[in-house]
Amino acid sequence: MRIFRLLKIQSVAFRFGLDEFFLSHGPLRFLKKPIQWLTFWRNLDRPRGERLRLALEALGPIFVKFGQMLSTRRDLLPHDIADELAKLQDQVPPFSSDIVLTILEKAYGRTVDEVFLRFDKKPVASASVAQVHFAVLHDGTQVAVKVLRPSIAPIIAHDIALMDTGAWLAESLWPDGRRLKLRQVVTEFARHLDDELDLMREAANCSQLRRNFSNSPLLLVPEVYWDYCRDNVMVMERVSGAPISHVDELVEQGIDIPQLARVGVEIFFTQVFRDGYFHADMHPGNIFVGQDGRYIAVDFGIMGTLSDEDKNYLAQNFLAFFRRDYGRVAQAHVEAGWAPKNTRVDDFETAIRAVCEPIFDKPLREISFGRVLFQLFQTSRQFNVEIQPQLVLLQKTLLNIEGLGRDLDPNLDLWKTAKPFLENWMSEQIGLRGLTSRMQKEAPNWAIIFPQFPRLLHHLLSENHNQGLEAKMQLLISESKRQNRLLILVILLLIALLLWQTLL
């Protein structure tokens, strides 16, 4: 099967002239002219980016999804190709209702009528991995039922294996291929596809995001009905709202559109910096707006996570950008190890300033984050900055936010909207509140460790007691005297913090 799939991929690639991506560079350049003579019948008048997009659409939904993800890696692609890939739409014909009923009956071991009071056979949404039907439980609860496409896993596995082979060839034949880490991109893509193929995992993602925004006036996340969820079936609360792209309908409902745009920015930064856990597929098809003006999120197959180190690095960079402190941006890259230690910070600072300074004090309609990211990646290449695969989804989400903001309010000032939020977050991390929070988190560990101090001290002093016991005692006493004042200050600080917490 794999050989036939490979032949189809080669046929499609050849039909759309994708061979020029490899024959224009490296050791195979000498083949370009002979192949052009032999394939004079091909119509290659369309731009290369458009031909690549059409080829991915012809190869099917998995390649379309990969193209969507690749469009966010402007460090990998020229901007004309990245802009074209950003146009990819994941519109897939639904599979038959008979197959849906068979999948459900096998998953539950009962007939569909026994599980649901009513089940709509016509899907309301269909994507590359699954499709969604509306239903009603026997207690009258209205739900949305997501059903995984049959036999999708082996197809994806074959396509991923072929993509990995293609990435290996590209790294071998494309200049800068190793630095661009194409195989890592495929690996990252495969990891997120694995998440989408397990609907129990998606249900857990949904449940976590709902818990993070419990009782939030900003975002509504549907409830998961765990008793009805399986590996290939997910059942959640049915939510209703207007698609966020239908601005005219939102205006008729009395929604404050500029405020809605600002709330979208706040939701993004809340997910990233407060929780380190964010919805990473925030295109217009997955975002709705309720009658109360809250955002409604659906489709939780792709979620991003950030470590505390990533969040701190990003927050410092964002704040430095907002304050136009480009020297701090450059220094943060070096401190994080993303730029080589021998990087000339002043030169790096100058290059970053040349990219970012022109975009400040401009409304969103005059800024292209895609273009800014591309220029920053070009600067990164110049200074040998390592690409961070864990931030791929964040880049993708930031571009989604740009698109949503531009559609809602072209005059949105992203910088002014985001800066107060980031400053508040940083104060929580490095100020008194941050110290208190971290102490509260570590308190259980201290409760375990402190009672052990006498035993550990006795063990230290009794170990090898014939070898310098007196010297150890003298050293301990001397050190305790030196640290006495500091210890008293620490104890007073702890007491003050505990009293302060008690009074809150």
TrEMBL record:
GO biological process: ubiquinone biosynthetic process
GO MF annotation, one: kinase activity
Pathway assigned in UniProt: Cofactor biosynthesis; ubiquinone biosynthesis [regulation]
Superkingdom field: Bacteria
TM spans (from-to): 486-503
ABC1 atypical kinase-like domain sequence ranges: 87-332
InterPro entries: ABC1_dom, Kinase-like_dom_sf, UbiB, UbiB_bact, UbiB_kinase
Keywords for the protein's UniProt record, in alphabetical order: ATP-binding, Cell inner membrane, Cell membrane, Kinase, Membrane, Nucleotide-binding, Transferase, Transmembrane, Transmembrane helix, Ubiquinone biosynthesis
SUPFAM superfamilies: Protein kinase-like (PK-like)
Record family assignment: Belongs to the protein kinase superfamily. ADCK protein kinase family.
Protein name (record): 2-octaprenylphenol hydroxylase
Organism for this UniProt entry: Nitrosomonas aestuarii
